[in-house]
Every structure is written in C-alpha cells, then in structure tokens.
Amino acid sequence: MDLQHANGADVKNAATKENNNVSQNATAKATANAKPEVAKPQPAKPQEPAKDEPKAAQEPPVVTTEISKPVLTLETKLRKVDELHRKSVQRLNLISRIKQLEAFEVNLAQENDELEDNPYQGCRLIIEDDKKRQFITTTPGLIRLVSQFIYGSCNEKLVEIEDSINFPNA
Predict the structure, then answer these.
(1) DSSP state of 165
(2) Which of 61, 76, 82, 138 has a CB 3.0–4.6 Å from the CB of 72, allowing a cystine?
(3) pLDDT tens, 67-79?
(4) Residue 92 and residue 148: Cα distance in Å, rounded?
(5) Interaxial angle between packed helices 74-111 and 140-164, expressed in degrees from 0 to 180 and rounded to the nearest 10
(6) Locations of Low complexity compositional bias (predicted)?
(7) What are the domain boundaries of the chain?
C-alpha cells in the first residue's frame, strides 16, 4: 500500500502539476489575448486624416482682395481740414498754457526764500465771472493744488487732442 500511496501521491502531485500548468496556460493565453488588443491600432484614427486631406484639396484657395477706400468728396475733405485746423489751434493753445505755467513756477522757485516750503507763499488766486464777482484766496496750499490740477488737466487734454489728429485715407 505504501507503493500505491506513494504512486497515488505521485499521481496526485502530477495532477496538481497539470492543474497548475493548465491554470498558468490559461492565464498566459488570457494575457496573450489581452496584449494584442491593447497593442492593436484603431483603424478609425488613420482614416480621419485621410478624410481631411481630400477636404483640404477640395477647398478653393483664399484670394486676398484689397478693400477700396471710400472716395471723399471735396466738401468732406474741406470739413476734415477745418476740423484738423481747429484741433491744431487747440493743441497750440494748450502747449502755450503749459509753458506759461511752467515758467511761472520756475520763477517762483528762483525768487522764493529757501526757508519756505511752499513757493506759492505770497501768491493770490483770483477767479472772476462775467458779472465781475470774484473769489480771492491767498492760501498757498490751495493755490498749489489748483496749479497742479491745471497742469495735469492741460497735459491730459493735449494727449487726447494729439491722439485724435489723424489723416483720412492715410
């Protein structure tokens, strides 16, 4: 019985080995079957560029045409010249005011006592309307603020006017 048991054990071991081999073979086959599916390229993607190529060949070439500019009449040209002249005069007036204010401040700074912080000390600001009503102040801080505001406003307006000056059809 020992032989049989030994042979039986051998048979059992052989059966177990066969079962292990079968399960390993099944796993290997499943793995082998799974790999080609992942590695296979999908046929739909290569076909899409092929479809795009004929579309590109079918599209007509883009033709660039220059858009003609509208022709201005003599009246329109003269109005534009008048408008440009008016803006040019405004520009020159603003430049004149800015230079006048700068010269005034330079003179104040040169004549001012070095001990004083505000060069507008001793200045007077007068605002007068058409009915001769007046607002007068001698406050140096207020006069400085008004002067700085006028200078900044003139520079902003100058930039705005210079940006708006342009030639038609140019």
Answers:
(1) -
(2) 76
(3) 666 677 888 889 9
(4) 20
(5) 150
(6) 25-47
(7) 74-164
